Amino acid sequence: MYIGWIRQNILRCYMKPFKYIKLALISMFFLWWFFLSHVTFTVFPRKFEMHNEDYMVRYYYVLPTNIIGIYSWFFNYRPEYIVLYDKNYNYIGQSSPFCIRSNTDLLAGEHVLPEIEFTNEYDSSSFYISGGNCQEEYEIPTKTKKWWSQILQYFHL
Could you tell me how far CA 143 lies from the centroid of its own chain? Predict the structure, then answer.
């Protein structure tokens, strides 16, 4: 009886950290799914892309895999997000996953690609759309990544 009690307490002590690890992994998966899954996988590219000597921008349709994606498809005609790559097709960043607009709204503004040779702060150090809704949310900096780009960079290897 004493041996059984010792074995039970030892198992309880070793299993407690695994319980917290499992809870943390389930929580991270749920948070990723709820906030970022609609812009994670680039499976539906639009047939339009922009590029210059240094960078390339691709436009992708939002996936209706969570509440944000479903909402975007209900209230926008073909909602899109934008991903910025360098000339070697390495992921740099993408537009905000929380302000999604349709392709007709995105065409209203001028799409400006970054240039490496410019050093002035007002010149292109990031991709941006001038004019239109969600102008700031569709800006993709080339120097520092936003938090969602830091998370989603591992899905673009």
Answer: 16
Find the DSSP H helices in 87-146. 103-106
The amino acid present at 31, given as its one-letter code, is L
Question: What DSSP character marks residue 157?
Answer: -
Helix (H, G, I), strand (E, B) or coil at 10: helix
* pLDDT tens digits for range 3-59: 666 666 666 666 677 888 889 999 999 999 999 999 998 877 887 788 888 888 888
Q: How far apart are CA 41 and CA 111, in angstroms?
A: 23
* Contact in structure between 92 and 142 (CB atoms under 8 Å): yes
| β-strand partners of 101 | 80
Q: Is this model's pTM higher than 0.90 or not?
A: no
Question: Do residues 60 and 45 touch, judged by C-beta distance below 8 A?
Answer: yes
